[in-house]
Amino acid sequence: MIRVGDLASGRAGDKGDVLDLTLVARDDAAYGVLAAALAERAVQHELNRVVPGPVRRYEIASLRALKYVLPEALAGGVYASLRPGLHWQKAAIWLLLDLMIDERGGHVVSGRP
Amino acid sequence: MDVRTACRVGAGAGFAGDRIDPAVLLAASGEVDAIALECLAERTLLPALKARAADPGAGYDPRLRRRLAPLLPAAHASGCRIVSNLGQANPRAAGEAIARLAGELGCGGVRVAAVLGDDVMDQRDRVAWNRPVSGRLVGAHAYLGAEALSQALEDGASVVVTGRVADSALFAAPALRRLDDRPEALAGAVTVGHLLECSGQLSGGNFSPVGGAMLSAEAYARLGYPLAEVFSDGSAEIRLLEGACGLLTPETCTLQLLYEVHDPARYITPDVTLDFTGLRFEQVGKNRIRMSGARSAGRPDTLKVAGFMELEGWIIDCEIGFAGTGALERGQRTAEALRLRLQQWADDDIAIDLVGVDSILRAGSVPTRTPPAEVRVHVSARCADAEAAQIVEDEVYAMTLSGPAGGSSVRSERRARIEVIDGYIAREWVKPTIEWSSS
Questions:
Q1: ipTM
Q2: Do A50 and B366 touch (CB under 8 A)?
């Protein structure tokens, strides 16, 4: 088992209702592991415990990057949020970085570190 | 084809409240021909529109003097030009204010161009909104491209000030007229603009490398903002000033490249739809990155419009703190009691959680192992009116007398309910104009 954040760095962004999460793998092997384990459906299953709606994934293998776009995650935009203060979504990348994955089986293991 | 330097452009600011000193360092270095400052987040326009409604001479960035008083003389001395959207809702008044300030500072012959035309409020019926306008529309602004900014520079502006433009356009404009006449060249310059538009976020800010090592506190305190030498073919070398704090690597560049981008093969800007799938970053020295491979996927026929709606009511955001042995348990019990007291709020309209435990990532939080020394119980609620907001605030305060021991350090704030709505308008309806002032 390995933490996603041990294989990749990441950053979260927002536009209106849309949350976007970027992972950049540390090397080609890590990219392969992440691309296999963090399929759209698995990521949606994990993230829907926190934010609503579907997940769309884009792959940019030449940059070792995976991009997850959640068009309904921030319903009403960041100013409609009921989190303390503004811009909670900047921390949302840890929803991915703190996932545990099975690097051989290529799947997400439930639970956080 | 010969590859020439088109422009050396510095990242002077990435949001309205950004630091002021990094831009001054870049302008004074003599190593940039232009410095661009992004000072207009989506929400920043709303107070600016209100200020303009109250006073026709207001509505630009209230930080204008604080930001430009040190920057104008440095840029004047080095011949570096300034491009910014700090005109916010009133670029014309901002242009006049900048010319006056330049005069006060003894910077003679400064020509300031105000680029107008983003305000499409009186054309709102021509906007195709993504969803129905449900509240009171306060303003509607189209995202302009780099063309009019570039024209102003071509016509001799030392300072170009505008309102809503694509962030990338501010940083691409100084290179625009010196690019090869190929779509890839434009795509490269706009990609550089996109990379620079968040200032320190390209050069080590908001970045946690694999393994989690942070920069030193001194580096975060004195983070250098990046500059880019844009070449005529649209490739670029991105770097920090010699000796500057920060970190420029292919990793920091890739994270910024994809920041707030959805489909990486189709990132729409007013000037060009960008395709990032062939992009390459190569480390060519310490804090030096060679960028190439930007591609164009055409030019959009429409411009994006941001509309601002004010909704009725407030969001109340308040907290009560607990410290000392048992703080977590006392906080948890307080949260439970507040849920009982505030049952009239629908689940979707109220959040009660613990700062220090789960208030940000909620069910995605890492489990607490050691109880925190302090916690804060947080309550946010959507309230139909000020009276309802007062009720929530009073219920939280009442826990200091009637709740678990030691409820303390109470704080509260109210936020107006704002919604930003996206739409599109045909290019033909948006015609930027340039107005001039001089010191």
A1: 0.97
A2: no
